[in-house]
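Give me the fold.
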Amino acid sequence: MSDIPNEHDCCAESPQHVSQQQTEKAQPCFEMENGCGDCVDNVEKPPFYLPQPEDEYPSKPEHTMGSLGPWATGKVTCSREGGITGLRPVADRYSITRYGPSEWRAHNLSIFQQSNERICNAQVTASGAKQCVDQVYAAADKVQLKTTEHLKTRANVVYRWKAELEHAIATIAEEMELLEAECRRVQRSLSTLTIPASIANDFLQLRSSRLDSDLIRDDVEEQLAKEVALISEIRDLLSRTREQIQTQMIELRAAKARAENDWSDKIHAYDLDSVCVNLSNDSSLLSWNPGATRIPADQSTPTNYEHFTQEVLTACEIAKQKSLKLRSNLNDIYTNSIKDLRDQATRVDIALSDNIKLTQECLQQLEKELLRCLHELANTEKLIEELRDSSKGLNNAMKLAQTRLDNRLNRRNIESCRDVPQYALIEEVKSLGEQTSAILAELKRAEESQAELIKARGILEHEIIVKRKTLYIDKERGQLLRSFFPSATDLSGF
C-alpha cells in the first residue's frame, strides 16, 4: 500500500520517529482542519497541548512525590480487602500523578499522528479499492461484452443452420407431397389398367363363342393375347414402382424426422442463446447457479456439431435426389408403357377392323352365292318337273306303239307277217324305251343335283350364320367393348 499514491501528501510518522524529532528539537506543524499538512520546521510555535521545544523526553520530575504529605490523601499500603490490587501511586482527591506535562503533550502528538496515519491509510485504501473496483468492473464489462459477442456469433451460426434445416425440411415436405401424388397416380393407373385387361379378356371370351370354322386363332386373337401379356407386364412394373415409392417415402420421412429433431434442438438453442444475449446485469431473471460451470460428459464439440448438422442435411439431400430420380424413372415408365399399350391397342383395333372387313366381304360373297344356289335350285326343280312331264308324255306314245303291236299280233295265219310296219313298231317301242330311260336318267341326275344344291344351300346358310355371328361378336360387341379402352391420360393416372 505504500506504493499507491494518495490524494493528500500526509507526513504520518511513528512514535519512535517522533521521539527522535523531539530529541533533535525538530517540531512538525499540523493542520487540524485538513487532517495533515506539509511539515515546516520553526515556522510557528505549536499549540500548547502538543510537545513544546523546551520539553525534554523522557521528562525529569522536579521532586519525588512521597506517599505522605499534606497534599496526599491516599493510603500508604494497599490490601486485597480494600478492593485494590497491585501497587498504586499516591493520589489525591482529583487526579493521578502518573505522567508529566511533557509526556501528556507527547501522548497527544502520538494520538494525532496515529489518527492521521490511519486516515491516510484509509484514504489510500479507499483510492486503491476504488481503482481496483473500476479496473475489475471495466475488465468484467469487457469480458461480458466479448462473451455477448461470442453468444451473438453462436446464435447467428445456430440461426443459419436452423434456416438451412428449415429449407431442407420444406424441400423434403414438398418432395414427399409430390411423391405421394405419384403414389396415388400409380394407384390410379393400376386401377385403370384393370379396364383394358378386362376388355381384352372379355373380348377373348366373346370370341371363344364363335361358331365352327370361324373359331380360329387369327391376328385379332394374337394381338389380344399380346395386349393381355403387355398389360400384365405393365401392372407388375407399376406394382414394383409403387413398392419403391413406399420405401422411398419411409426414407424421406426418416430424413424429415431427423431434420425436424435437429431443427427443434436448434430452435431451443437459438431461443436460449437469444435470452442469454438479451440478459443484462439489471435483468430480473438472474440467479446464483454454482454448478453451471460444469462441462457435461456428453457435450459435443463445434467440429462434431458442424459434422452432425451437415450429415443431417446430406441425408436429406440424398433422400431428395433418390426421390427425384424415382419420379423421373416413373415418368419414363409411364411414357414408354403407355406408348406401348396404346400402340398395341391400335394394332388390336386395326386387326379387328381388317378382320371385320374381311368377314363382311366373305359374308357378302356367301350371300351372293346363296342367291345363285337358290336360283339354280329353282331352275333344277323346274327341270325336274319338266322331265317328269316329259316322261309322262312318252308313256302315251309307248302305249300307242305297244297297243299297235299287240293288235297286230292278233292277225291270223299268213297275215301274221313280219312286215315293215312290224319292224317299224318294234323299233318305235325300242326307241321310246331308250328315250324314256334317257329322260329318267336325266331326271335322276336333276334330282341328285337338286339334293346337292339343297345341301350347298344349307352349308351356305350355315356359313352365313357363322359369319354373321362373327361379325356380331367382332363388330357389334367387340368394337363397342374396345370403345371403352382408357385413354393415355387415364392410363397415366391423371
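The chain has a mean pLDDT of 82.
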